[in-house]
Each structure stands twice: as structure tokens, then as C-alpha cells.
Design a protein that fits this description.
heterodimer, A: about 280 residues, mainly alpha, 2 domains, 10 helices, about 80% helix, about 0% strand, flat, B: about 280 residues, alpha/beta, Rossmann fold, six-stranded mixed beta sheet, 9 strands, about 35% helix, about 20% strand
Chain lengths: ~280, ~280
């Protein structure tokens, strides 16, 4: 009996192995990290029990979860404060990053002159700049925003600048041949071409703006002026309230993951029809 | 040795008055490479003129000069007394399809009109007609990556022709396509050309393609890039698959091939002697 006599698709051993492999990978991609995570949490719990660790040093996972529920009102209202700073600064980072990139794209000279400033802002640790901002800026929200913005805007600026400059030469000639104005070239060619680069920068900036917001709150919170998640952490630290400290930490991590997932989804939806990065692998 | 036929006899297709003349045109790049040297070439209205030559003979440079994407170092371009041409009279097809990957077929073809301020609604009939002319009706909303290489090139031709230019400049447009697709596009391009009577300057390194398509083949030689000799292809239009297999076509190809070999040898000779 040969494969030709059967009408059903018969796979040779190599193809069959490949199909099996793919199916395993599909399941493993979700199952494996989940299993490791559960195992880690279980181990954490066991370590607490085996060593009789008091909960103000290392609380058991169950206690942390309980605290997350018990202190939900306090923690989530703080989360909202942090989120407000995060999203506002991300918005400003997008506006500022893209705006500056477009400005840089107008002329090589502008880019060469001003890009070093952006790098200086990027490489100087924000914790070190904050005391200065504290002197010059009065408004608390403005302070935090400025901090988070400085941390978040650079990846957007540098990626978008790269994207605006990576337009196919022939396409540029084609626009020139058709008498496109500078604005038309930007609108119909360079901005769409920069989109995948911008979205890549946005994904990085999303996480950074959360980090920027939390770090800024930390530095500001030391003076007791903030009510975000960071100040909850500091407060809990002073009071040896480790369960709440852990709960706040978990909340921040989940927020960061959520921001990344949402931005990845947005990126996928925008690019899925045309960009290589969003296409399914085909063999 | 440089050989030149100054004026080719009027060909069978009966082309019209002079459209553009290159007079003593040379181009030297900043790195010292002489891409073109003393090129004299007259292009008449309705010509299907091929620039045929080995790589490095400056045929693409010549095309860019004609398009106004680059300016000559010496000599001048004479568009019936004017040194520059109204760009809206020129359509350009690149070697790659050069489409906007994020835009669908309709938007890609609409683009030249859009840049001139023509709204989508106003452009729609023209764009749809142009798509029909290149046999792409029904593909308006496909994006380039969903199309085959040949179809992408059809979109590129439709985009170049949507403004109804008088001159179509083509830079090795079918070089990357498989033979069957190339033959098909050759036929369709000729059909379009015969219907609309625009002028074509077609850069290629294929003897067979240049002979099949053109009424004039200008053979170029390299180092420095120059016109080597011009051939009139007097076979009548319309040319189709039966022409492609005819003895006439074979003879013309042999003739062009001999000239091309002469052009290549005229370059290689002195270079090898020098070492």
C-alpha cells in the first residue's frame, strides 16, 4: 500500500516529526514558563515554612496575595497616581521624541548639532538629575513628569530618527520625480516608513516611562510629597510591612507587563498587513 | 576605438519629430569615475529606444540624466530648445518595483496624482482604468507583499503611466523576473505603447529583450561609458509570440549580439594590454 493509493495526506517521517515538534512547541510556549513560575512560587512558600522565616522578613506568597486584597483600596489608588504619571510622560515622550525626530530629519545639520544633547540627557542617571529639578521646578506633578519623560523619550527619538532616515533611495527618487513637496515626502513616505521603528521605540519607552515614574516618585517620595506606588513601598519599608511591600512590587511588575503587551498588540495591529516583523513565518 | 552612427534611418514604425537630444553629454562622479563620455543621442517622439550594454557602461546614468535626477558634467540635454523638462511629462520605472509596502495597489497607483492634489474620488476612474490596462483589475486592495514579482512590476508600470507622461523611462525593469513572466510583460508593455504612442527609453542588458521591444537599439560600451553603435530594428509592429520565434528575430538578435560583443571587446582590449 503506497501513499498514492491512499487519498489522505501521508507524511514522511521527517515531515511528521516536524509537525509533532511544532505542536509541542506551541503548547510548551505557554505551559513551560507557567510551570516554572508555579514551581518558583511553591519553592518560595516552602523556604518560608522550612526555615520558619517571620513574615516581616519574607512573607509567604499566600500572605502577599491576602495583602493585595486587604490593601486593595490603598494600593490601587496609589497605582492610579503612578499610572497617571506613566501615561502622561509616555504621551509627552511620543510627542517630544517624534517631534524632535521630525525636526532632525529636516536637515542633517540640525541632527548633527542637537543629537549630542539628547545623548547627554539619556546617559546621565535620572536620580542624579532629580535634585536639580527639585530646585528649579515647584509643581510636584511637573517634577515627576519631567523625570519620567527624560527617561522615556530617548528610545522614541533615536528609533524614529533612524526610521525617517531609512527610506529606500528609489522611493525617494520617485517622490522627487513626481514633484513632491518636503511636507508630502514626510507625510506619505518618511513617516509611514518610520512607523515600524517608532513602534519598536514605543515598546521600550512604555516600560521606561513606568520605571521613570516610579524612580521619580522614589526620589520625591523621600521627602514625603508623593502618593504613588513608590511612596507606598518606602512607607511599607519603614514599617517593616514586607507583605505590602511585596504586593506593591507585584502590582508594578504586572503593570509593566500589561503596558508591554498592550503596546505589542497595537504594534502588531498597525504592521500586520505589510511589515516583515508582523508576518507569520512560512516555510 | 569609438564608433558611432550619427543618425539612424527612420524605422519601420515611423517615429515622429525630435523629442530630446543629448549633445556631447558627459558625467564624472566625485570619486573620479567617468560614467559617461561625450554621448550624442537623439530621441524622437514615439521611439521605443533601448540602451543596451554591459554593466558599467553608464546606461542607468544616462537614464537618470534624462529624468533630471542628476545633472551632466559636460554637454547638454535639449528638450526642443529647453534644457529641462516638465517633470510631469516623465514616468519612471525602477529595476525594483519600488512600491510603498504599507499602501495597497490602488493607493500606490494613485500616489503620483495624489502628490499633484487629485482627490481619491477624482483619481479613481483614472487609476482603475490604468489598473485594467496592466491586467490588475480586482487587485486594488492587495498590498505589495501579497503580489508576485510580475504583478508588482505591473503596479509599478501603472503608477508610472497614471499621469499620462509623454516619456516612459525604464531601468532594467524586468531583469529580476523569470523568463515566462518577462515575456508576458514584454508583450503587454508593447501593447500599451502601441495604444498610447508615448516614447520609451528602456535600459537593459538583454539582447533578446531589446531587439524584441525596440525600434532602435543603442549599444553602449564601458570605461568610459559611451555610445558604441546604434541599430535600427526594422521589424514591423505589432510584435507578438510569432515574432519571437521567427528567423527575422533570430537574425536581428545575432546582429545585435555581434555589436554588443564588439562593444565589450572595445573595453576589455586596452585594459588587458595595459597589464
Amino acid at each position: 500500500m503506497t501513499a498514492i493509493e491512499e487519498h489522505a495526506l501521508t507524511l514522511d517521517p521527517e515531515e511528521a516529526r516536524r509537525v509533532r515538534q511544532e505542536r509541542l512547541e506551541r503548547i510548551g510556549r505557554w505551559l513551560l514558563p507557567l510551570a516554572i513560575m508555579v514551581l518558583a512560587i511553591w519553592l518560595w512558600d516552602r523556604i518560608c515554612v522550612w526555615n520558619d522565616i517571620p513574615k516581616y522578613i519574607l512573607p509567604r506568597p499566600g500572605v502577599v496575595l491576602q495583602t493585595l486584597f486587604d490593601d486593595a483600596g490603598l494600593l490601587f489608588s496609589s497605582l492610579l497616581v503612578t499610572l497617571r504619571i506613566t501615561f502622561l510622560s509616555l504621551l509627552l515622550a511620543v510627542v517630544g521624541g517624534v517631534g524632535l525626530a521630525v525636526l532632525f530629519a529636516q536637515s542633517k545639520w540640525v541632527e548633527m548639532s542637537f543629537f549630542p544633547f539628547a545623548i547627554v540627557l539619556q546617559v546621565t542617571p535620572i536620580v542624579a538629575i532629580f535634585p536639580l529639578i527639585n530646585i528649579y521646578v515647584d509643581n510636584q506633578t511637573t517634577k515627576l513628569l519631567l523625570c519620567a519623560w527624560i527617561v522615556a523619550f530617548f528610545p522614541i527619538l533615536s528609533n524614529t530618527t533612524l526610521g525617517l532616515n531609512s527610506v529606500d533611495r528609489n522611493l525617494r527618487d520617485m517622490f522627487k520625480l513626481n514633484g513632491a513637496t518636503r511636507w508630502q515626502q514626510l507625510r506619505y513616505l518618511r513617516l509611514p516608513a518610520a512607523m515600524p521603528y517608532f513602534l519598536g521605540g514605543l515598546k521600550i519607552a512604555g516600560g521606561l516611562s513606568l520605571i521613570g515614574a516610579v524612580v521619580a516618585e522614589f526620589v520625591a517620595g523621600a521627602t514625603g510629597q508623593s502618593s504613588g506606588l513608590a511612596s507606598r513601598i518606602i512607607e511599607a519599608g519603614y514599617r517593616l510591612n514586607a507583605p505590602r511591600l511585596f504586593a506593591a512590587l507585584i502590582l508594578i511588575s504586572f503593570t509593566g507587563i500589561l503596558i508591554f503587551l498592550v503596546l505589542s498588540l497595537i504594534s502588531h495591529l498597525i504592521l500586520r498587513r505589510w511589515h516583515e516583523s508582523a508576518l507569520k513565518q512560512e516555510r | 576605438m569609438q564608433e558611432k552612427v550619427a543618425q539612424a534611418p527612420a524605422s519601420a514604425s515611423g517615429t515622429g519629430p525630435m523629442l530630446l537630444a543629448l549633445r556631447g553629454v558627459g558625467k564624472v562622479f566625485s570619486n573620479g569615475v567617468t560614467a559617461l563620455s561625450d554621448v550624442d543621442l537623439t530621441i524622437r517622439e514615439g521611439d521605443f529606444l533601448s540602451l543596451l550594454g554591459p554593466s558599467g557602461c553608464g546606461k542607468s546614468t544616462a537614464l537618470r540624466l534624462i529624468a533630471g535626477l542628476s545633472t551632466p558634467t559636460s554637454g547638454l540635454l535639449d528638450w526642443r530648445g529647453s534644457s529641462s523638462v516638465d517633470r510631469s511629462n516623465i514616468g519612471f520605472v525602477f529595476q525594483e518595483p519600488t512600491l510603498l509596502p504599507w499602501a495597497d495597489v490602488f493607493d500606490n497607483v494613485w500616489l503620483p496624482l495624489r502628490l499633484k492634489g487629485v482627490s481619491r474620488a477624482k483619481a479613481a476612474p483614472v487609476v482603475m482604468e490604468m489598473l485594467a490596462r496592466v491586467h490588475l483589475t480586482g487587485f486594488e486592495s492587495a498590498v505589495p507583499r501579497e503580489l508576485s514579482g510580475g504583478m508588482k512590476m505591473r503596479v509599478s508600470i501603472a503608477r508610472a503611466m497614471v499621469t499620462k507622461p509623454r516619456v516612459l523611462l525604464m531601468d532594467e525593469p524586468f531583469a529580476a523576473l523569470d523568463e515566462i513572466t518577462r515575456f508576458k510583460l514584454n508583450n503587454d508593455l508593447l501593447e500599451l505603447w502601441q495604444d498610447e504612442r508615448f516614447t520609451v527609453v528602456f535600459v537593459t542588458h538583454s539582447v533578446f529583450e531589446s531587439v524584441f521591444l525596440s525600434n532602435r537599439v543603442v549599444v553602449m560600451a564601458a570605461r568610459p561609458g559611451r555610445v558604441f553603435r546604434e541599430l535600427a530594428i526594422d521589424a514591423p509592429y505589432p510584435r507578438n509570440e510569432s515574432f519571437r520565434t521567427s528567423p527575422d528575430y533570430a537574425a536581428l538578435c545575432r546582429q545585435a549580439s555581434d555589436v554588443l560583443i564588439g562593444a565589450i571587446n572595445s573595453t576589455a582590449g586596452p585594459h588587458h594590454d595595459g597589464h
